[in-house]
């Protein structure tokens, strides 16, 4: 493992920006492209937003963000100790939203999937959800 | 966020600054809906020229406004959109239901053309 950080922050919407900024900062030493950086920020933002809205349903809670670096492969682990997801396959369906809020697009998992190389979601009802995203950055010429 | 009314086109223009995530989208939604109601406008244009980031919460916000103005017979215009935002608009299919243009003027022109076509064809 080349590098590893772990941070905990409150499950509050103003920390969404904090979390994706930390993730982007972690990736910076690899000199990612602008597009790769955007993809990391969006994917992490989606996972953290899910934890706030679905994991804790707006209630107080703690979200854990782990970032790991191995060569040019980044791993982001977003963990909440909230409600958990009853049916992960259903939750991962495009446009499915587990929220009653009509303003939720239901695209979170689809975006995480599209913008990373590997997405794993594990969840236990009443215990919480863990999202693991791996992203391999392109090798630089020279 | 700044809001301008163009009464001639029954259009409000909302200039968004910074990042549109779940946290910020709530404020854009609140302002846009309030101004639509207050002014009696039926069309809304979002100026994306100063938007530096958007995730799926922005998509949800746009779809929400699309539903609101569609019920009034109006349109949603997005202009001066970055490549990152455009990619999400394409992925989500939002690009097929709103007018995306480089400038506000072009967006308004397209909105009025579509209106004319409808009258002509209907």
Topology:
The complex is a heterodimer of chains A (142) and B (122).
Chain A: E1 3-10, H1 15-27, H2 34-55, E2 62-70, E3 73-80, H3 88-92, H4 108-115, E4 118-124, E5 128-136
Antiparallel strand pairs in A: 1-2, 2-3, 3-5, 4-5
Helix pairs in contact in A: 1-2, 2-4
Chain B: E1 2-6, E2 11-20, H1 22-39, E3 43-54, H2 56-71, E4 76-79, H3 83-92, E5 99-101, H4 104-121
Parallel strand pairs in B: 2-3, 3-4, 4-5
Antiparallel strand pairs in B: 1-2
Helix pairs in contact in B: 1-2
Largest interchain contact: A-B, 23 and 21 residues
What's the tally of helices of chain B? 4
Bin the helical content of chain A: 25-40%
- Mean pLDDT of chain B equals 94
What's the rounded overall pLDDT mean of chain A? 93
The count of strands of chain A amounts to 5
Shape of chain A: globular
Uncertain ranges of chain A: none
The total number of structural domains of chain A is 1
Strands in their spatial order, largest beta sheet of chain A: 1-2-3-5-4
Radius of gyration of chain B: 13 Å
Structural class given helices, strands, pairing of chain B? alpha/beta
User: Major sheet of chain A, described briefly?
Assistant: 5 strands, antiparallel
N- and C-termini, Cα separation of chain B = 38 Å
User: Can you list the strand order of the major beta sheet of chain B?
Assistant: 1-2-3-4-5
Q: What structural category arises from helix and sheet content of chain A?
A: alpha+beta
Strand content of chain B: 25-35%
Highest CATH level, the class of chain A: Alpha Beta
Describe the sheet with the most strands of chain B.
5 strands, mixed
Please tally the helical runs of chain A, counting DSSP H or I stretches of 4 or more residues: 4
Distance between the termini of chain A: 23 Å
Note down, in words, how this protein is organized.
The complex is a heterodimer of chains A (142) and B (122). In chain A, a hairpin with a 2-residue loop joins strand 2 (62-70) and strand 3. Chain A has helices at residues 15-27, 34-55, 88-92, 108-115; strands spanning 3-10, 62-70, 73-80, 118-124, 128-136. Chain A has one domain (3-136): 2-Layer Sandwich (Heat Shock Protein 90), CATH 3.30.565. Chain A is an alpha+beta fold and 142 residues long. Chain A starts with a strand and ends in a 6-residue tail after the last strand. Chain B has one domain: Transcription Regulator spoIIAA (2-Layer Sandwich). Chain B contains four helices and five strands; from the N terminus they run ββαβαβαβα. A five-stranded mixed β-sheet of chain B has the order 1-2-3-4-5, with helices on both faces. In chain B, helix 1 (22-39) packs parallel to helix 2 (56-71). The longest helix of chain B is centred in the first third of the chain and has 18 residues, at 22-39. Chain B starts with a strand and ends with a helix. The model of chain B has no long low-confidence stretch (mean pLDDT 94). At the A-B interface, helix 1, helix 2 and helix 4 of A face helix 1, helix 2 and helix 3 of B.
């Amino acid at each position: 493992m080349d590098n590893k950080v772990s941070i905990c922050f409150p499950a509050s919407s103003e920390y969404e920006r904090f979390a994706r900024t930390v993730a982007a900062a972690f990736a910076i030493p690899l000199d990612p492209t602008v597009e790769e950086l955007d993809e990391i920020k969006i994917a992490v933002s989606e996972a953290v937003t899910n934890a706030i809205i679905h994991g804790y349903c707006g209630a107080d809670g703690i979200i854990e963000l782990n970032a790991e670096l191995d060569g040019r492969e980044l791993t982001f682990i977003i963990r909440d100790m909230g409600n958990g997801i009853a049916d992960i396959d259903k939750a991962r369906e495009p446009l499915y939203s587990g929220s009653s809020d009509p303003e939720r697009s239901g695209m979170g998992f689809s975006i995480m999937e599209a913008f990373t190389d590997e997405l794993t979601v594990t969840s236990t009802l009443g215990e919480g959800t863990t999202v693991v995203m791996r992203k391999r950055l392109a090798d630089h010429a020279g | 966020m700044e809001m301008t009314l163009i009464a001639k086109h029954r259009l409000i223009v909302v200039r968004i600054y910074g990042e549109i995530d779940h946290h910020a989208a709530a404020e854009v939604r609140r302002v846009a809906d309030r101004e639509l109601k207050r002014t009696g406008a039926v069309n809304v244009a979002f100026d994306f020229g100063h938007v530096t980031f958007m995730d799926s919460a922005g998509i949800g916000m746009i779809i929400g406004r699309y539903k609101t103005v569609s019920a009034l017979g109006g349109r949603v215009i997005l202009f001066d959109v970055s490549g990152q935002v455009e990619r999400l608009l394409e992925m989500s299919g939002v690009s097929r239901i709103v007018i995306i243009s480089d400038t506000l003027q072009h967006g308004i022109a397209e909105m009025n053309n579509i209106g004319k076509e409808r009258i002509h064809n209907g």
